[in-house]
Amino acid sequence: MLSIASRVSASFFALVFISGCATGSGPIATYSLSDNLAALNGFKKIFLKTSRFTLTAYTRISHLGNPIHIYIEGDGVSWVSRTQLSDDPTPRKPLVLELAAMDASPNIAYLARPGQYSESGKPECDSSYWSDSRFSKEVVDSMNEAVENLAHQAGTEHIHLIGFSGGAAIAVLVASNRHDIDSLRTIAGNLDPDAVNKYHHVTRFKNSLNPIDVAEKIKNIPQRHFIGSSDRVVPLSVIESFVRREGDKDDRRITLIDGVGHTKGWQEKWKKELYSSVF
After folding, report:
1. Pairing of strands 54-61, 68-72
2. Which is nearest to 110 in space by CA: 52, 168, 45, 50?
3. Angstrom distance (rounded) from CA 100 to CA 41
4. CA angle 216, 203, 121 (to 5 degrees)
């Protein structure tokens, strides 16, 4: 039997092949690509029914009672242009699932956002939940329910959250409502959506919570915030403002990754950065 490390290495070659064979570039192609990637790495696809949404997750639970690492997906394809909202926010490339597959921890889960990878093959919630209400209280509460469910499946009260981009905002907001988060890692994290929207000259989210408002509440959670030096979506200043709101005046919680963009370059860096994190 292949070890987890060997399986992850082998899956990368398979993923390149699958990517080349996937037809189309829409969300359904990503569904298939992600299902294949998950299967290659021993993940099981499940659907979690919360009070508001049915959320999709991929899990690899191998040692009950051990801590669980939960990877939270980013915003995906929320908009197809500056004025046209997407019909399906499922990400077109499974970057976050790839990062989860690299994690050799015994219990791993990948958690999608509302509307992504839906059970029926098309979003089963209002499009506001991947636009103006993407960080709303009902979204955060449902994601928190899903985190609770995943921790229960792993038989643990020790949770490590890893959030990418908008998923980092969700991770922070979820962490602010819990007392069992052992660590928090963000990747290209949108830790202040108001500031990011202002940076891009777009309207602020009227129906969403802002993670920077709870920064002080989570300041005692061990955390590391990764940001690429070539990120053109989330500026470094947003991460700096967040950690300084927590009281980290020296930016010790920030790791700047040279040459990495918002979505490009993370696969090559993640395993090293994940296991070398110093909180």
Report:
1. unpaired
2. 45
3. 10
4. 90
pLDDT digits (tens, 9 = 90+) for 93-151: 999 999 999 999 999 999 999 999 999 888 999 999 999 999 999 999 999 999 999 99
Q: Which CATH class is domain 4-275?
A: alpha beta
Residue 85 CB partners (closer than 8 Å, separation 6+): 78, 79, 127, 130, 131
CA distance 188 to 236: 9
Joined together, the tokens standing for residue 190 give 């949108």
Which residues are CB-neighbours of 154 under 8 A, at least 6 positions away? 61, 64, 65, 66, 67, 68, 107, 109
| Tokens describing residue 85 | 């909202």
Pick from 268, 196, 258, 249: nearest CA to 227: 258
- Distance, in Å, from the CA atom of 277 to the CA atom of 253, rounded to the nearest integer, reads 10
